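Hi everyone, sorry if this is the wrong subforum. Our group has a chain we'd like a structural model of before ordering constructs, and none of us has done structure prediction before. Sequence below.
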Amino acid sequence: MPDSNTRAAFRFFHRLRVRWAEVDLQKIVFNPHYLMYVDTALADYWRALALPYEQSLHAMGGDLFVRKSTLEFHASAVYDDVLDVGLRCARVGNSSLQLVSGIFRGEELLVGAELVYVFADPVAKASLPVPQVLRNLLTTFEQGQSPVRAVLGDWHSLHEAVGSLRASEPQDANAQHCVLYNALNEVVACGRLSPGPQAQVEGLFVSPLLRGAGWSRVVRQHLMAAKA
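Answer:
Right subforum, don't worry. Here is the predicted structure as tokens:
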């Protein structure tokens, strides 16, 4: 298993709190729940990539199937612990993805995990090459690059993109707009900067399947930078 013993090995983290139902008779987290923690983190990892999971895989012509999952235990979590689940893509093969995870309590590594997924035809269940767009995205994301592309412009140039997320509003006509596109060139978030000396960021909207990943904050940052 790749060395993932420190928090520094991960760019992405998902935070959770241990629930009472996840603790066994030994008063520690029941072993299989750690895989559930990693799987929950994986859903947020896709949001951090700005990719709605099901729709994106369908657009790429395949699905991901688990081939291997392993856990390595170092210490136990107990009820009400706050855990940070680190996750990263360690390798992209011809038709597979290797993901590694570290479950931390503070700086202490409790559990390490490795998961191997195969990209395959969801009907024939036959493996397929990992799409180049996904390969590039995972590689650049883990290198620290943003998975989205920000475009600034007026209403005339961006009204169709904004309209794919929300209905138009009277304030749109004279405002400057920002739209975020993901690796599949899909619109994932938008916002506007009202005109005038008291300009404010308004009309923030994020695709419902990607909410909670901080994309409205990214839109705001781009608009405030344009204001400056």
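For your construct planning: The beta strands are 12-17, 63-73, 82-92, 96-105, 108-120, 149-153, 176-181, 187-193, 201-206. Residues 7-142 form a domain with the Thiol Ester Dehydrase; Chain A fold (CATH 3.10.129.10).
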